[in-house]
Design goal:
The complex is a heterodimer of chains A (225) and B (242). Chain A has 225 residues and is an all-alpha fold. Residues 71-78 of chain A have low confidence and may be disordered. Chain A is elongated, with a radius of gyration of 23 Å. Chain A is built from eight helices and no strands. The longest helix of chain A is centred in the middle third of the chain and has 39 residues, at 124-162. Chain B has helices spanning 48-55, 78-87, 104-114, 119-132, 148-159, 178-195, 207-211, 229-240; strands spanning 4-17, 20-33, 37-41, 63-68, 71-72, 89-92, 166-170, 198-203, 214-219, 222-228. Helices cover 37% and strands 29% of the residues of chain B. By secondary structure, chain B is α/β, with parallel strands linked by helices. In chain B, the strands form two sheets. Chain B has a six-stranded mixed sheet with strand order 6-7-8-3-9-10, sandwiched between helices. Chain B has a four-stranded antiparallel sheet with strand order 2-1-4-5, covered by helices on one side. Chain B contains eight helices and ten strands. The longest helix of chain B is centred in the C-terminal third of the chain and has 18 residues, at 178-195. Chain B is globular and about 45 Å long. In chain B, helix 4 crosses helix 5. Residues 236-242 of chain B have low confidence and may be disordered. The chains are: A mainly alpha (225), B alpha/beta (242). Chains A and B meet through helix 1, helix 4 and helix 8 of A and helix 2 and helix 3 of B.
Chain lengths: 225, 242
C-alpha cells in the first residue's frame, strides 16, 4: 500500500466491458431509457409517415390513380407539391430538435455520474464511448420502431385515399419513372429513417457527454440539473 | 525524517462568476505525512472542499503546485491522472456519489473494472470489502434500497477497492445522524490505524477532531493554523461542556 513508484498510465478497457456496462445501464434505467427512446421513435415516426405518404402518392399518381380525397389539391400529375416538401422539411426539423433535446436531457441529468466515474479512474474516452454505445442502440431501436409505425400510419392513410389499389402499386422498392421525380421506395425511406435516428441520437448525446467528460470531476459533480 | 505524501505550494484557485472572480484558495501551503489522519476544518465557503478537490486531482489549481508522492500533479498526462484517481486515492463524499443504477457490489467493482482486474478476483474482493464494512448481507442491494449510513459504507468499500494509499473524505458524516456518523468515523479511523492509509478529511464535524492526528484550520482560502491532537482534546472538552 505504500506506493511511491511513479504514477503509471491508465489502461483502456476492453470493448466488451464497455458494452456490458452500457447495456446494464440501459436495462436498469429501463423506464427512463424508454422515454428517451420514445422521443426518437416519435420524431422518426412523424418523418417517415410524411415521407412514405409522399412516396405512396407519387407511385399511385404515376400509375394513373388519383387520390379519392385529394383530387382538388394542387398536386401536379407527377411530382411533389410544395406543401409536401414543406411538410417533409417541417417533420425533419421536429425530428432533429426532438431527438437532440431528449438526448441532451438524458446526458445532462447524468453529469454527476460522469464525474463520479472519472473519480474512480474512468478515462474521458471511456465515458464518451459509453454514451455513444447507449445512444447508438437507443437511436437505432427507437428509429426502427418509429419508422415501422410511420410506415403503418402512411399505409392506413393510403388505404383511405386509394383503397386496395394501394397494394398493387405499393412503392416498396426504388423506381425511376420515365417522367417525374425519382421514387425512393418505402424500404429506402425506412432505412434512411433508422440511420438518421441513430446519427441524431449519437450526435445528440456524445456532444454533451464529451463536454462533461472533459470537465474536471469536481465541476461535473457540482452541476445541478 | 517524515515521509511526506501530499505537499501543496502556494495553491490558488479562482472561480469566475460572470465578471466577478472569487478567490476560493489564496495560497495554501501544507505538508501531509504518510499514515496521518488530517482534518481540514473551516466554515462553509472557507475553501476546504476546494482544497480537497485540488489534493484529489478532481480540479486544477489556478496557480501553485500540488505534489503527491513527490510528483507534480500538473505535469501528469490525462492517462496518468486517471490512473492516479483509480489506484492511489479513494474518495468518500458527503452525498455518497454512488452510481444509483449499480448495486453495492456493482459500485465496489467499478474501480476494479477500470483497473483491469479480472472478474473473479474483483467479485471476491468486493464481497470481502462489503463484508468488512458490515454489509455482507446487502451486497446486491441498489443504493436506493440502503440507508444513508449503509450507502456511506458502500462508498468506503468502493474507496478501498484498489488499495489506495490515500483516503480523501469530503464531509463524510454531514448527511448522517450522530450515531451513524460516529460509526463511519470509527471505520475510517480503523483503516487509518490498521492499514496505514493516509486519511485527509474536509469536515466541520467536531467528532472528527477526536480521531485526527492534526487539524488544519482553513479560513478565507488560507491556512489559519495547524493544530496537533493534544491541543485539540482540550478544546473538544470545552465544546462538550457548552
Amino acid at each position: 500500500m505504500n506506493q511511491r513508484a511513479p504514477i503509471e498510465e491508465q489502461i483502456d478497457l476492453p470493448f466488451v466491458e464497455s458494452l456490458r456496462i452500457s447495456f446494464q445501464s440501459l436495462k436498469i434505467r429501463f423506464g427512463r431509457s424508454i422515454i428517451t427512446t420514445a422521443g426518437i421513435t416519435l420524431g422518426i415516426a412523424f418523418l417517415v409517415s410524411v415521407w412514405t405518404n409522399n412516396e405512396i402518392n407519387l407511385a399511385l399518381q404515376e400509375s394513373g390513380r388519383q387520390s379519392q380525397i385529394n383530387t382538388f389539391e394542387e398536386t401536379t400529375q407527377q411530382g411533389i407539391s410544395t406543401k409536401d416538401i414543406w411538410l417533409i422539411i417541417m417533420s425533419l426539423i421536429v425530428c432533429v430538435v426532438g431527438i437532440a433535446n431528449s438526448m441532451l436531457m438524458a446526458v445532462t441529468e447524468r453529469f454527476r455520474e460522469i464525474g463520479t466515474m472519472k473519480c474512480l479512474g474512468a478515462l474521458d474516452g471511456f465515458v464518451v464511448r459509453l454514451f455513444l454505445l447507449e445512444s447508438g442502440f437507443q437511436g437505432f431501436s427507437g428509429a426502427l420502431i418509429g419508422a415501422l409505425l410511420g410506415t403503418l400510419g402512411a399505409i392506413i392513410l393510403g388505404l383511405k385515399d386509394y383503397g386496395l389499389d394501394l397494394f398493387f402499386y405499393f412503392p416498396l422498392l426504388p423506381a425511376q419513372p420515365e417522367e417525374g421525380a425519382m421514387q425512393l421506395g418505402v424500404i429506402v425511406v425506412i432505412l434512411l429513417g433508422c440511420v438518421l435516428g441513430m446519427i441524431l441520437a449519437v450526435i445528440g448525446s456524445s456532444f454533451p457527454a464529451w463536454r462533461a467528460a472533459k470537465l474536471p470531476p469536481a465541476e461535473a459533480m457540482r452541476t445541478e440539473v | 525524517m517524515a515521509d511526506i505524501v501530499v505537499k501543496t505550494e502556494d495553491v490558488v484557485k479562482e472561480y469566475r462568476m460572470g465578471s466577478n472572480v472569487l478567490r476560493a484558495l489564496d495560497g495554501i501551503n501544507i505538508e501531509i505525512n504518510r499514515g496521518e489522519y488530517i482534518s481540514l476544518m473551516g466554515p462553509s465557503g472557507s475553501g476546504k472542499s476546494t482544497l480537497f478537490n485540488m489534493i484529489g486531482a478532481l480540479d486544477r489549481p489556478t496557480e501553485g503546485r500540488v505534489y503527491i508522492d513527490g510528483q507534480n500533479m500538473s505535469q501528469l498526462s490525462q492517462r496518468q491522472i486517471a490512473a492516479f484517481r483509480c489506484h492511489r486515492v479513494g474518495y468518500i463524499f458527503q452525498s455518497y456519489n454512488l452510481l444509483h443504477v449499480r448495486s453495492a457490489h456493482g459500485n465496489v467493482t467499478l474501480p476494479m473494472i477500470f483497473a483491469g482486474i479480472p472478474e473473479k478476483e474483483r467479485d471476491e474482493k468486493a464481497e470481502k470489502l462489503l463484508d468488512m464494512v458490515g454489509l455482507g448481507d446487502r451486497i446486491y442491494h441498489l443504493p436506493d434500497e440502503l440507508s444513508g449510513g449503509q450507502r456511506q459504507r458502500v462508498a468506503i468499500a468502493r474507496a478501498l477497492a484498489n488499495d489506495p494509499s490515500i483516503i480523501l473524505a469530503d464531509e463524510p458524516t454531514a448527511n448522517l445522524d450522530t450515531i451513524t456518523g460516529r460509526e463511519i468515523i470509527d471505520l475510517i479511523k480503523r483503516l487509518n490505524k490498521e492499514q496505514g492509509v493516509t486519511v485527509i478529511s474536509a469536515t466541520h464535524d467536531l467528532k472528527m477532531l477526536d480521531v485526527s492526528d492534526r487539524i488544519v484550520d482553513i479560513r478565507d482560502g488560507l491556512v489559519e493554523r495547524i493544530r496537533n491532537r493534544d491541543e485539540i482534546e482540550i478544546e473538544v472538552g470545552e465544546v462538550g461542556g457548552e
